[in-house]
Each structure stands twice: as structure tokens, then as C-alpha cells.
Amino acid sequence: MNDDKIRIIYVTCPDKEEAKKIAHALVEKKLVASANMLPVESIYYWKGELKEDNEVILLAKTLKEKVKDVVEEVKNIHSYEIPCILTLKARPNIEYMNWVGSQVN
User: Fold this and answer.
1) pTM to 2 decimals?
2) With contact defined as beta carbons under 8 Å apart, do 66 and 104 qualify?
3) Domain 6-103 carries which CATH code?
4) Which is nearest to 26 in space by CA: 62, 65, 64, 79?
5) Spatial CA neighbour of 12 closest among 22, 2, 4, 3
6) 76 vs 39: CA distance, rounded Å
7) What is the pLDDT of residues 9-43, one digit of tens each?
8) Domain extent listing, the chain
9) To the nearest 5 percent, what fractions of the chain are helix, strand and coil?
10) CA separation (Å) from 74 to 10, 27, 40, 95?
């Protein structure tokens, strides 16, 4: 496996419960190897109004070829009208890269 295959999917969620729901679905369907959840404070404009919210960032690790499937699954579950779903390249150590490859279908 070359070192260009791993992707991190970054998703903001309204709360820990929704982040966990998405993470469980992605891991159980073997679309991602693992997911982490981090609480954050977010400031943004939505429909012309300045918002400040507590959110949870979901970081899910997957293979490059699974990104489209992961994005579609997140969209199917997510409660936001327009969820933030970002795909980031990652340069993992070889052992972790091999583990992700063994976990994702």
C-alpha cells in the first residue's frame, strides 16, 4: 500500500450523540477504520445570522477509494441541511496505514 491511500474525513456534528451515531455506522459498515470525536466551539454565519455553537468534530480514517461512500453515508445520517464534510490527505506511519487497509472493506 502506498502512502497516498489514507484519508481523514472531517465532519462537524451538532452534538456527541450524532457524532457517535455517524461513527458507529461508518465503522460497522467497514467504510472507515476508526473515528475520533472532539468538542469544539464554532462561529459562523447561517442564513444571514451570526451563530456561536458547541459542536463535535468527527475525524474518520479511511482509504482514498472509500471517500465517496463515506461522504454519502454521512449525508444520509447527518441532521444538518448542509453538513461540513472535508476530505484531508494523511501521511501515516506504515503500520497504521496497513491497519487501516485491513479494517476497511
Assistant:
1) 0.94
2) yes
3) 3.30.70.120
4) 62
5) 22
6) 22
7) 999 999 999 999 999 999 999 999 999 999 999 99
8) 6-103
9) 35, 40, 25
10) 11, 12, 19, 27
